[in-house]
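ok so for the tutorial part 2 we go from a plain amino acid sequence to predicted structure tokens. step 1 is just haveing the sequence, like this:
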Amino acid sequence: MLYRENGQFKSTYASDQQMLPIAQDRVFMVLLLAFAFIGVPLVTSDYVFLSLLIPFLILTLAAIGLNLLVGYCGQISIGHAAFMAVGAYAAYNLVLRVPQLNFLVVLLLAGLIAAVIGVLFGIPSLRIKGLYLAVATLAAQFFSDWMFARVKWFTNYAHSGSVQTAPIELFGWTVETPVEKYLFLLAVLVVFTLVAKNLVRGHIGREWMAMRDMDVAAEVIGIRPVYAKLTAFAVSAFYCGVAGALWGFVYLGSWEPLAFNLNLSLNLLFMIIIGGMGSLLGSYFGAAFIVALPILLDQVPIWLGVPISTATSAHLALMIFGALIVFFLIVEPHGLARLWAIGKEKLRLWPFPH
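step 2 — the prediction. this is what the tokens look like for a chain of 354 residues:
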């Protein structure tokens, strides 16, 4: 009886189309954000911030970007770590060569540069689809690995091929401690999630979903495939470019081209498959799962008094990832987000199911 819509009448179009139409959802979201911004910094250690929360927030942003393309527009991509690399190196060179830029401006410019590259690699989607498109996007991954390793200008001619970033400064505030990094990333993620939610609720999102469901029918009713597909690639690459800049500057601090390899691209794809394709909430669930599972596999055997080697836990993580992907593809293709939705539907009827 705690989660019912009884008595919640909508008298305007705005109230009927709001993002969270149920009052209980709005209250829960306010409490969740208050806990995330105020409660978590008070009760969490630096280790949890650095090993769990900070990578979770950045990978969630990247997973949202990939989900906009794969889950909402139906365009398969297995090379999105390349756009993260473009964003990271673009931000590095912008900070190095134009030091007077504010870091927020650097983030947006890095995302825009990644969006341009995403559009270039999205052009094949106008002619091919499915497995062929996946292979075409894989070319972006291989090309970025080669370019950032061989073209020394991107790394400021560093002999080792790695780059070192400076501390982030925002309006006189230096983002240095784990708590400050967490709060900065959380604010960025909330803003980008709101933007993505409104995009998929608007006409652009409806065009993407029409192309995903049946591109021929979408073209018949007046949707332009060129515009829909390329905007999906651009927005998706923009999100991943911003995530890549944050991954390099906030999480890594210094990196080499292999930091954005094919393994990272596959992990992003695993996130949206396990979390739920076509769901922003699924991006959160998938990123949390991918980040937390290796740590749990390291810690749980120790808690149970059965310590295992690091290599064994790494192999276990890979086997569990593979088994879960097969499981969700067979049993619940919409992932953890669908299980959450089913739970909410049952809760709305409890205790009088019918």
